[in-house]
Amino acid sequence: MPTSTPPKAVTEQALVFDCQGEALVGVVSLPAVPQDTGVVIVVGGPQYRVGAHRQFVHLARHLAAAGYPVLRFDVRGMGDSAGAQRSFEALSDDVAAAIDAFTARHPAVRRVVLWGLCDGASAALMHVQQKADARVCGLVLLNPWVRSADTLARTHLKHYYLQRLTQRDFWAKLLRGGVGVKAVGGLASNIREASGAGGGGKEAAKTFQDRMAAGWEAFRHPVLLVLSGNDYTAKEFGEYVAARPAWQKLLERSGCSRVDIADADHTFSGGEARRAAEAATLRWLAVLC
């Protein structure tokens, strides 16, 4: 099937709506017989509603073909939407406006699931922390962004440098002078950051992570966590959670489901990985609904 056209059972409609005086643009993928639960794709930045390798288009059409209306939209300052570009930490008004417009245009949609990748997942958690919206009945979080200086350093140490130290070619290059002073300096810098001696990196990134945790803690509905096996952002998330018992408890709650897709990269760019992420979302939605 060509990627330029939706399945026969799915129609697509443009949706233009207001967010604090700025016009936002989205596309609704609508099934012939819609469920009362819709999905809003929260797009982080810098990104727009199509997604890398048309990821969000494929996802929206796949879910709509199974009966779930889906809205994917451009936040302010991105894609076709007006306004100034803003951080993923400040997208809650955009998400709220999207939910309002989606449910107003399609009143059969009474409940909404927020689906987000990377800082889109982070923005979804911060949205439920900031806005108490009873219509939001679930979250799908893929490779959430929790970067701080110490987690990045710890991830590099564990998943790159320690691997390199076991490889013969690394030592051969070192002895020949092929591993430069910069690389060795990078290793030393990562060790300092991972041990907490990096000079305040933790505090700089603490606020948005705390907001994410507060949103998750307050959210008493199901959450699906999807992690890629071949992605540093997912590995950073694992390192971040492993060092924080409060986050571990969130993942252990009865309403949290987790799916690991071993060979997937950050955006599930391979066809098999993309289909695995879509299938995981669809299975979870079937239980939710």
Task: Report on this structure.
The protein is 46% helix and 19% strand. By secondary structure, the protein is of the alpha/beta class. It folds into 2 domains: 222 residues, 3-Layer(aba) Sandwich (Rossmann fold); 44 residues, no CATH class. It has an 8-stranded mixed sheet with strand order 1-2-4-3-5-6-7-8, sandwiched between helices. Helix 2 packs across helix 3, helix 4 crosses helix 6 and helix 4 packs across helix 8. It is globular, with a radius of gyration of 20 Å.
Topology, please?
Elements: E1 10-19, E2 22-31, E3 37-42, H1 55-65, E4 70-73, H2 92-105, E5 111-117, H3 119-130, E6 136-142, H4 149-165, H5 168-176, H6 181-194, H7 201-218, E7 223-228, H8 232-242, H9 245-252, E8 256-261, H10 271-288
Parallel strand pairs: 3-4, 3-5, 5-6, 6-7, 7-8
Antiparallel strand pairs: 1-2, 2-4
What string gives the helices and strands in order? EEEHEHEHEHHHHEHHEH
Total strand count, please?
Answer: 8
Query: In the CATH hierarchy, what is the architecture of the largest domain at level 2?
Result: 3-Layer(aba) Sandwich
> What's the CATH C level of the largest domain?
Alpha Beta
Mean pLDDT: 87
Largest sheet: 8 strands, mixed
